[in-house]
Each structure stands twice: as C-alpha cells, then as structure tokens.
Design a protein that fits this description.
alpha/beta; globular
Length: 288
C-alpha cells in the first residue's frame, strides 16, 4: 500500500509541477505581443507626416525676350521669370515654369493644366470675364516698327499697309479695329520676333507690338535697320499674372508677394538688370 501511495503521490506531484510550468509559460505571452502593440503608434507617426508641398505650374510663352525666352541651355529666363520667382519666395510657394504656346495658353489655365500664367498678359475687361488677375506689375503701350526708310509717322498711316502682329495680342486687336476683321493686309504670326523677321524680309510694311519687345529686338538686331514710331492713339495698358477664376487663395498670395518685392527694392533690381536703370513711375515695358 505504501508503494502504491508513493507512486500516486509522485504522479500527482508531477502533474501539478507540469501544470505550474505551463501556467508560468502562459503568463509570458502578453509580453511577446508587446511589439505588435507598437504598430498603431508607428502608423500614427507615418500618418502625421506633412504632405509634400504643392508645386504651382506657371504657363509662359517663352518667345518674348527680354521678358520670357529660352537661353542656349533651353532654360526659361527673363524679367517676368525673375519677378515671378521673387514673388513666389515672398509668398512661400514653389513654382515651376512650363513653356506654353500663346495660342493655347488661356485654355491651359481654364482646364487646370496650369495654376497661373505669367507671360506679359495685358489685363483687359474681356479677359477678366474668364480669369482673375493680380495687381498690375507693368505699364505698357504699343509701338510701331518700320524700316528706317519708311515714311510712317503715326498709327493712321498703317490703314492701307501690310501690318504684322502676333496673334491674339493687343497689337492684333488694335490693327484689327483699324483695318477691319477680314482685312487681307493683317499678317498674323505665332510670335512678335517672327513678325519682325517678316518686316526685315519685306513681307510686311510695319509691325505693331509691345514696346519692350520691339525695342529689345531693334537694339539687338542693328543690321535690320529698323526705326520705331510711337503714337498717343494707343491706349495705355497694364498686365499681371492670371489665375483661374475664383482662385482667391493663390491670388492673395501673389498680390502680397508682389507688394513685398516692390517695397524692399527687389523689383527695381530686377528691372535694372534688364533695362539698366530702375523703372520710372509708372514702369514702362511690354505686354500682350
């Protein structure tokens, strides 16, 4: 009896000891699960990371020196580009310039392919109906370019002459109003330099375009033997940056940035870089 009792006692003790071991092992499982509990915290950390800053696409017709053009490296450069870059820095936004042909530049804004346009765009009542403009940053006027031997002295002298203009610009509008919408004497080109090349070749008698672009071309192409003719009949113009209708948030940022670069002298420095001196009041340059 004693042997049986002892054996049973040992069996019972062994079972109890095994149970204790299993119970002890069971208590360690929550500790092993601890790393998994940290996963939500890591996910929250990732979720809290700020989204990448928006890059605003800027449409510009880079065929309008000295305001918007491409250098020998293919980079878009010019006074307008420098102004927009400075404005963006003040406004705390990032911009990217995209060469956009003038013929489709306004559609690119309306369709959302561009966030703003910076391409020497004249502010007009007609354009205000479909887009919003910043405060003006240039005062401008139209200028007539003719050969040095031409007898043209005023805008009225162009009524019966062949005149070159850039399609869709205010120069185009002025000549169309003078000669009529269906006049065969109006020759339209993709850019003002192309119109001036045609004048040099004798294909047109005159070119009407923005003063800054005309003066820049005449200065840098002395062999063309052009002269310029101004006329008070041309209405004063102003241009600014264009944004999609109703985009007040971006418009306010741009206006503030523009005001800041004018206040701290940055604007005058940029102007002097291209024209040799700070602008008179008001500034004089080109527009489309």
């Amino acid at each position: 009896m004693t042997t049986i009792t002892t054996r049973r006692f040992l069996q019972t003790t062994g079972l109890l000891f095994a149970g204790v071991l299993l119970a002890a092992c069971g208590k360690k499982e929550p500790e092993a699960a601890a790393p998994a509990a940290a996963a939500p915290a890591e996910a929250a950390s990732v979720a809290a990371a700020p989204p990448p800053a928006k890059v605003y696409m800027v449409g510009t017709d880079a065929a309008y020196a000295p305001f918007e053009s491409q250098n020998e490296k293919g980079e878009i450069v010019g006074l307008t580009i420098d102004v927009v870059t400075a404005v963006a820095q003040k406004a705390g936004i990032e911009v990217k310039f995209v060469n956009t042909p003038w013929e489709g530049i306004f559609n690119s804004l309306a369709q959302g392919d561009r966030d703003l346009l910076a391409s020497s765009i004249t502010i007009t009542d007609e354009r205000k109906q479909t887009m919003d403009f910043t405060n003006p940053y240039f005062d401008a006027y139209q200028l007539i370019a003719v050969k040095a031997t031409s007898k043209v002295t005023k805008f009225d002298d162009l009524k019966k002459l062949k005149v070159g203009v850039q399609t869709g610009t205010t120069g185009d509008e002025a000549v169309t109003k003078q000669q009529g919408k269906n006049s065969a004497n109006i020759k339209r080109f993709e850019s003002t330099p192309l119109a001036l090349k045609e004048l040099e070749a004798g294909g047109v008698d005159a070119v009407v375009a923005d003063n800054g672009v005309v003066v820049n071309y005449v200065t840098n192409n002395p062999g063309a033997k052009f002269k310029t003719v101004s006329d008070k009949a041309f209405a004063p113009e102003q241009y600014g940056f264009a944004v999609k209708k109703g985009n007040t948030e971006l418009l306010e940022k741009l206006n503030k940035g523009l005001a800041d670069i004018k206040a701290d002298g940055t604007y005058d420095q940029i102007y002097a870089k291209y024209f040799g001196a700070a602008p008179a009041a008001p500034a004089t340059a080109a527009s489309k």
